[in-house]
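Researcher: Go.
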Amino acid sequence: MRSTKLRVVADDVLKFARGCSLPDVELEELRRAPARYHACSPAQRATEEVTTDDEQSVT
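Model: Structure:
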């Protein structure tokens, strides 16, 4: 299920990179993401990166 969501998001990001607009919900999420990332401590970010790497290798 995660890989399906990932494909949808990746497809939207690719369209955005090519000049199309993102759906409002995803655009708002994209705007909030840096603030959430910077609010985390470096240790939390390292844990999230390891988790993300593990999840990607499973799918």
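Model: The mean pLDDT is 75.
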